[in-house]
Fold this protein.
Amino acid sequence: MGTLLRTELTRLRWRRAVLVLLAACVLGPALILAGEAWNTRPVSDADRHAVELELTAHREAVERDVARCTRRPEEYGLGVEVGPGATPDAVATLCRERVWGPPMSVEDWIGRPRLEPAHVADGAGVAVVVVLVVATLLAGATFVGQDWASGSLSNQLLFEPRRGRVWAAKALAVLVGCAGTAVLVLTLFWLAVWALGRARGVPVPDGAWGDVAAMQARGVLLVAGSGIVGYALTTLFRSTVAALGLVVAVVVLGTILPLAVLGSGAEPWLIPMNAGAFLQDGYQYWVEGGVTEYSCATPEGCVGDGGSRTLTLAQGATYLAALLTATLSASLWSFHARDLP
């Protein structure tokens, strides 16, 4: 088995289409990192000067509104808060809070996020995993698709007639290659994020890097599973085009049509939502007509869940594991039972 695995890893490493996809696994995250670094860049002196001019003009308009509100607070919804004995200064303070809101800094006015691990994980981190999932799915499919297209599988079985061992060796090669690529790329990506955040002096909350590490470990599992699915489907249908066509149909049409027919009630059964729940430790969705529970025992007033529901990590993992098991079982059965070209 060891010799077979080394042979398949060598073939995987030298397949030109796979090399192109591996390059995309590096280039895609690099571009995402560059975009994230630019979008979270510190506020420059030029930005600060431009925003301060805007804030000055905005403050003048706010002060005019505050003056009108002080004279007629009922027009601004402050008739209850302003009692008969309220002083003009107290009324002006209430009006300023209503019109202006909390004090706003230049950074708040620009609305530019900082390079924090949690923010990066929910945005760029998810995007990197998606790029790796798509690339490894294609890599797993094209790796074995060439064997079917050229008919070389029959020659391979002359040297190793036990089909189960051949199927397993190819699957393990795809698994090792995809998982190794994901570990390398994600490690480099987050090392770059850490170094950039440290250079900018961004404070990191306690436990933030632990949450990131757990999420990226689940991302490695998703990437490895994606490569295996691409391999298994191509082995089942004996065609790269057929396998990828099925994937597109299931992911795109299998998402759009159920949502169009069943609405939000279909979300717990969709692949992207379950993958998101597995990767991000839960996925929250809205149920139309769901029972809304409200609580008014909060400083903000009455709040409620609005019919929201959560797809948990365990549910997503179970769903994906069931799909993976069914796909691998069908692929292995087909490879054993059907005649080879």
Residues 290-297 have pLDDT under 50 and may be disordered. The beta strands are 283-286, 294-295, 303-304, 308-311.
